[in-house]
Structures are given as C-alpha cells and as structure tokens.
Design brief:
By secondary structure, the protein is an alpha+beta fold. Helices cover about 20% and strands about 25% of the residues. The strands form four sheets. Strands 1, 2, 3, 6, 7, 9, 13 and 16 form an eight-stranded antiparallel beta sheet that branches. The protein has a four-stranded antiparallel beta sheet with strand order 8-14-11-12, with no helix packed on it. The protein has a two-stranded antiparallel sheet with strand order 4-5. Helix 2 packs across helix 4. The chain starts with 7 loop residues before the first strand and ends in a 9-residue tail after the last helix. This is 2OG-Fe(II) oxygenase. It comes from Pendulispora albinea. InterPro entries: Pro_4_hyd_alph_FE2OG_OXY.
C-alpha cells in the first residue's frame, strides 16, 4: 500500500489572466515591504517582498476570490483526507430516519454533497491572512527549513491554530524556485494558477528555493481551526 504524503496540488485553480492582474497590482502597490518570519525581518532566513492583503480595501475582491478558491480546494482535500476534520473534532448530524444525532464518519465525506461538506468545513475552519510575496530572481528565497505551526508572542495563539498551509503560484517564468518538503523528499515545481495544500506541522518542514532567471510571485495563507469559543459555544444554564 502506497502511503500518502498529504501534499496536494490543484492545477488551474486560478486562470492565468487573473494571476497576471494580481502581479501587476502588487507591483504598483505602496504596501509592499520586506518579508518577515515569526521573528521579524531576517534576510538570512527569508529574502522576499511581501504584502498582507486581507485588510486592504483595494484588495477586498481579490481576498474574497482567493478564499473561495482555497475553500474549493479544501473540500477536495477533505474528501481525500477526511481525518483532517473528523479526527480532531467530533461532529454529529441528525439521522435522516430517526432524527437521533450520529457521528459524522470519515468514509462519508468522500461522497457527501457539496453543501454539507462546505457547512462542515466552515464550522471547523477559518481563513488566515493572505500574503502576496515576491522573490527576486537569483536573490530571493526562503532557504531556512521551517514549518508553519509554532507559538508566537502576542497573537493569542493564532499560529497554533494553523492546520493547513496553502500557496497559489501566480507565475512560473523562472527555473527552480520550488517549494521543497524535507521529510517527503519532494519538490513542488511552481506552475502558474496551481494551488498547493499541505499540513503545517514539523512533519511538513519545507523551504522556498531561490528562483533563477525570473522573479517568483505567490499568494499564500493558512487554514486555521476556529477558536474554541466558536466551536464549543456555551450552552444556556437551563440546558446544562
């Protein structure tokens, strides 16, 4: 039996014209600044030019569109790897015949209808901030082996809520520049319009290799668990 590596790539997630338009808008934005890691700006670890777009009014339509694309690909991911949602959380749904609550089983998610899967995904997860990033040709990159799940001061545990990472490649007019996963011994070659999804923990330690012969542009974010206050809403005292 072949063991999965939990790294999935969804080609043609975004059309090439829209990819190009995002790059052009990025190139003219005054919001672009030096890329940061969890510890701040350190060009030895990461050499990039970044911009967070999630709270920028001029990027609102792009943010909505990219989150919709990520959700569409997330549904495909959950159909293949259902335990990403049913292992940590115990969802129950009414039995159609009896009305009694029953657990949602992993094997059901492969064939369940889109609306139910979407409802389940939105109940469990929320989108992270979207970052646009530019890695300059022959200079930029994120060569440090890193993962996306770690404690961070003063962010209320947000980085510890990350479940999956996603990266949408906006161009491929360069060589190398792969997203390389350490333990899976796998390099993902950027292809414009393709979206990558992978787990955030140390098991999927990765790095961004330096592009050669052209600048590399990506959009990237995370799928996070909803906070416990939302997942486990307090019941009225009379119902306890």
């Amino acid at each position: 039996m072949e063991h999965p590596d939990f790294i999935e790539v969804y080609e043609n997630a975004l059309d090439l014209v829209t990819c190009t338009n995002i790059i052009r808008q990025f190139q003219t934005s005054e919001r672009v600044q030096r890329g940061r890691t969890g510890g701040g700006v350190d060009l030895e670890l990461k050499d990039s030019w970044d911009m967070s777009i999630s709270n920028a009014p001029e990027w609102s339509s792009t943010t909505v569109m990219l989150n919709q694309i990520a959700l569409r690909c997330l549904r495909l991911y959950l159909r293949k790897f259902a335990h990403a949602i049913v292992a940590p959380l115990h969802f129950k749904t009414p039995n159609p015949a009896t009305g009694a609550l029953q657990l949602v089983r992993a094997e059901e998610l492969a064939t369940t209808d889109e609306s139910f899967l979407t409802t389940l995904a939105v109940k469990a997860f929320r989108p992270g901030d979207i970052n646009l990033q530019k890695y300059e040709s022959d200079v930029g990159g994120y060569p440090y082996w890193h993962c996306e799940l770690y404690p961070k001061r003063d962010d209320h545990g947000e980085t510890l809520h990350r479940v999956l990472l996603w990266t949408l490649y906006l161009n491929d007019s360069f060589t190398e520049g792969e997203t390389e996963f350490l333990y899976q011994s796998r390099k993902i070659r950027p292809k414009a319009g393709s979206l990558l999804i992978a787990p955030t923990a140390f098991t999927h330690t990765h790095r961004g290799n330096r592009p050669k012969g052209g600048d590399k542009y990506i959009a990237t974010s995370w799928i996070l668990f909803r906070r416990a206050e939302q997942l486990y809403e307090a019941q009225p005292a009379s119902a306890r």
